[in-house]
Amino acid sequence: MQILFIIISAITLVSAVLVVSVRNLFHAALYMMLSFLGVAALYALLESGFMAATQLLVYIGAISILVIFAIMMTRRLMQTTESPFNSQWGMSGFVSASLFVLIGAIVLQVYPLDPAVAGGAPPAEELVTNTVNQLGVAFTSADQLVLPFELASVLLLVALVGSIIIARPDVEAEVEDES
Amino acid sequence: MITSYLAILPEILLIILAAIVLVYGRHPKGDRKRGVGLLSSWGVFVVLLVTAGLSFAGVPGEVPQEIWGGMFRNDAFTLVFRTMFVMAALVTCMLTVDVPRLQHGEWYALVMLATVGFNLMAAAGDMIILYLALETASISFYVLSGYATDGRRSPEAGIKYFVYGAFASAVMLYGLSFLYGITGETNISLLTQAVLGNISQPMLLLSTILVVAGFGFKVSAVPFHFWSPDVYEGAPTSTTAILSTASKAAGFAVFLRLFMSGAVGNPSNQNWWVMVVVMSILSMVLGNMAALWQTNIKRLLAYSGIAQAGYLLIGLVTYSVDGTGSILFYLYMYVFTNIAAFGVVILLSRVTGSDEIEDLNGLSRRSPYLAIVMLLALLSLGGIPPAAGFFGKLFIFRAAVEAGFWWLALIGLINAFIALFYYLSVAKHMYLYRSDDEEQPIPVSRAAALALGICTLGILYLGIVPSAVFDWTRLAAQVFF
C-alpha cells in the first residue's frame, strides 16, 4: 500500500512539474492528463470511489479533452516551441518554494509524520462503502445539500450564458456608442 | 416548510426574472431595446417590494433561523444586505436602460444572477454555499466586465478580473479547506464551536491568512487591490457601478459572517487582526495617495474605493456591535453614493465618448442637476455634511475610539482630509472651469433621472436623519454578539 502510494504520488508530481516545464504545449496537456490520472488513483487508494470516478470523468474526460481541442484548433499553439520560462521565473519560484516550506512546516508541526501519532481512528465502515448513496440522498433532501445543489445549477447557467456572450460574433458592430 | 421557501423567495423570483429577461431580450429591435431594461427594472422593483414585504410579515423573525440544513441563515443581517443588493441592482438597471451597448437580456440576467449570489453570500451559514454563491457572483462579473466586446479595454478588464479573481478564489478555497481539515465541519456555527476548543493552532492562523487574502481581493484592499483600477476603468460603466458597490459589500458581508462569529478564532486573541489593521492603514494611505494623481474619473473612483475599503476595515477591527453596525451603515451610504457618481459618468460619457475628469468641465452650466448629484456624491465620499458620508465616517471612527483604537481613527481622519483634496478638485472642474459644449445639455432619460433621484434622496436621508437606519443596522449587528 505504502509503495503504491509513493509510486502514484511520484508519477503525479513529476508529470505536474513537466506540465509547466515542457516546451511543447500539446505535450504539456498530455502530462496534465497523466497528473489528473494520478490524483484519481490516489482517491481510489483512499477508498473514495465516487471522487475517483468524478475525477476521471470530469477532469480527464471533459477538461483535458477541452484543453487539447483548444490547443489543436489554435494552429499557432501546436507548433510553438517557446520557452515556458520568462524573466520572472526565479522570483516566482522563490516565492512558491518559500510558501511550500512554510505550509509544509506548519502541517508537519500539527500532524507529525510519526505513524503512531498520525494514524487516528479509521473512518466508520458505512461512511466508506456508501458514499454515492449518501451523496445522492443529501443532494435531494431539504435539510442537507439541496440549496447548494440548486445554486450549482444557477452557477452553471451563468457560466453557459457568459461563455456564449464572450464567444458570440459582434452582431451590432454598427452601433458606435460605447459606454 | 413554507417558511423555508418564503425565506428564499426573493432569490427564487430573481432567478425566474432572469429567465424571463433572457427569453424576452433575445435580439431586441427598435423600441424593445429599451424594453429589456425597463422590464428588468420593474421586475427587480417587485423583488425589492417582496423583500420589504417579507420583513414586515415577520420573515425573518426575532430569532435567527438556520434553514435548508444550516445552509441559509435567515436573520436581520441577511435582510439588511439583501435589501442593499436588490436596491443596488435596481438602480443600476434603471441607469442602464439607455446605454446602447448593454441593451441585451443577457446583461440584465447576469446582473440578477449575480445579485442572487450576493444575497446567498450574505445569508450563508455554511462554507459550501458560501463558496458557491461567491463563484456565482464572481463568474457573472467576469463576463459583465468584459461585456463590450468591440473595444479592447473591456475584454482586457474581463480577462484581468478573471485571472486575478480565479487566483484569489483558489487561495481562499485553500484556506477554507484547511479550516475543514482542522475541524471536520463546514457549517459556520458548528465550525465556531470546534475552533473555540483549540484556538492557538498554527494551522488556524494559516487558514485565516489565506481566507483574509481571498476576501481582501473581493473588497479590493491593499495589497490585493491591483485589479481594481484597471477593471473599473475598462469595464462598461454600468458594470463598474454595481461591481464597486454591491460586490464590495458582499465581500464585507462574508468577512463579517466568518470573522465576527469567530469561525476563524476569537478576534480578542489578536492573531489575525494585526493583519487587518495593516491592510486597513495601507488601503487608506495608498488608495488616497494614488487617487491624487488620476486624470480618469473611473480610475479616481477606483482608488477612492480602495481607500473606502480601508475605512470599512477599521470597523471590522473594533469587533463590537457599534463597529459592525457602522460598517453596514457605511456600506448603505457607499452604495447610494458610488452608484450616483457612476450614474453621472454613464450619462456623461455617452455624450463625450470618454471618461476623463476634464469632461466634467462646465457641467454646472451644461446640466446643473447632474452637477448637483455629482457634487452630493463627492461630498458624501469625502465625508462632509449634509451628505451621508459624514455620519458613515463618524460612526466608524466613534466605534474605533470606543474600542480603544483612537490611533486608527486618527489615521482615518487624516486620510479623510487628504481625500477631500481630490474629491473637491473634481467639483472644481464642474463648477469653475468652462468648456466649449456648455450650450448642449446632457440628455437624461426618465429612468435614469429617477435612479439618480433615488440615490440623491438616499444620500440626503442617511445624511440628515441617520438614526433610523443606524438603529436597524445595529440591530442586525447584534446577531454576532
The shape of chain B, in one word, is: globular
Number of domains of chain A: 2
Strand content range of chain A: under 5%
Q: Which protein chains are joined by the largest interface, and how many residues does each one contribute? A: A-B, 33 and 50 residues
Number of helices of chain A: 9
- How are helices and strands ordered from N to C of chain A? HHHHHHHHH
Low-confidence stretches of chain A: 173-179
Number of strands of chain A: 0
| Major sheet details of chain B | 2 strands, antiparallel
List keywords for this structure.
heterodimer; A: 179 residues; mainly alpha; Four Helix Bundle (Hemerythrin (Met), subunit A); 9 helices; globular; B: 481 residues; two-stranded antiparallel ribbon; 1% strand
Descriptive overview:
The complex is a heterodimer of chains A (179) and B (481). With 179 residues, chain A is an all-alpha fold. Chain A has two domains: 1-79, NADH-ubiquinone/plastoquinone oxidoreductase chain 6, subunit NuoJ (Four Helix Bundle (Hemerythrin (Met), subunit A), Up-down Bundle); 115-179, no CATH class. Helices cover 74% and strands 0% of the residues of chain A. Chain A has helices spanning 2-21, 25-45, 49-73, 75-78, 89-110, 115-118, 125-129, 131-140, 146-167. The radius of gyration of chain A is 22 Å and the shape is globular. Chain A starts with a helix and ends in a 12-residue tail after the last helix. Chain B is mostly helical and 481 residues long. Chain B has a domain at 270-481. Chain B has helices spanning 2-7, 9-24, 32-56, 76-96, 105-123, 127-145, 153-183, 188-197, 202-218, 227-234, 237-260, 273-291, 297-318, 321-352, 363-366, 368-382, 388-402, 406-431, 446-464, 467-477, and strands spanning 65-67, 72-74. In chain B, strands 1-2 form a two-stranded antiparallel ribbon. In chain B, helix 5 runs antiparallel to helix 6, helix 11 runs antiparallel to helix 14 and helix 12 packs antiparallel against helix 13. The mean pLDDT of chain B is 88.
